Amino acid sequence: MKPFEQKNLIFVDTEFTDLDPYKGEILSIGIVKLDGEELYIELEHKGDSSAWVKRNILKMLDGPKFTRQQAIQQVQEFLGDTQPFMVGFVDNYDVIYLTKLFSAGKLPFKWMTIDFASVLFAMGINPVKFQQDSDSAKDFYKSLGIDTKKFKHHHALDDARLLREVWLKITSS
């Protein structure tokens, strides 16, 4: 598969406190450029989190914490004025929480994002099979020659790294 444009892409994943965007807040952002350059930010958070987030996400957040304004500034500096296409795996939540962070109309990437789950669907691969480190997901990654043991599951930067690696494998064939 050859994508439309492969020069100006970023691979993004976020972690957040709740699936309900009306009460949830962004916790971390992982961004990996096509060339492998990375940015990882953990945000200050004082509110509540869902039980699932408490069990699976909060324990992995051990880096320095940044204010919302510092996070915005870091992302803007990292991306510059490139206005890249953002690729996310099931990107709807990532976009919602990034829009809450940056404000509507002020995203540092093109507003038309690329949902990797839709790409898989178009390739005849059921994206639902990629939930929770399933055997079908492991088989898919293995078929691409990707060792998933080097990635922490549900860690924004590692999920963005894995997404980039999968993208590179499927677009090079």
List keywords for this structure.
Nucleotidyltransferase, domain 5, 6 helices, alpha/beta, 173 residues, 6-stranded mixed sheet, globular, 36% helix
Give structural notes.
- The chain has a six-stranded mixed β-sheet.
- The chain has six helices and six strands.
- By secondary structure, it is α/β, with parallel strands linked by helices.
- The protein has helices at 51-56, 68-79, 92-102, 116-122, 135-143, 156-172; strands spanning 9-16, 26-33, 38-43, 65-66, 85-88, 114-115.
- The protein has one domain: Nucleotidyltransferase, domain 5 (2-Layer Sandwich).
- The longest helix is centred in the last third of the chain and has 17 residues, at 156-172.
Show the helix and strand layout.
Elements: E1 9-16, E2 26-33, E3 38-43, H1 51-56, E4 65-66, H2 68-79, E5 85-88, H3 92-102, E6 114-115, H4 116-122, H5 135-143, H6 156-172
Parallel strand pairs: 1-5, 3-4, 5-6
Antiparallel strand pairs: 1-2, 2-3
Q: Indicate the percent of residues in helices.
A: 25-40%
Spatially, the strands of the biggest sheet line up as 4-3-2-1-5-6
Structural class: alpha/beta
What is the overall number of helices? 6
Question: Brief description of this entry?
Answer:
This protein has helices at 51-56, 68-79, 92-102, 116-122, 135-143, 156-172; strands at 9-16, 26-33, 38-43, 65-66, 85-88, 114-115.
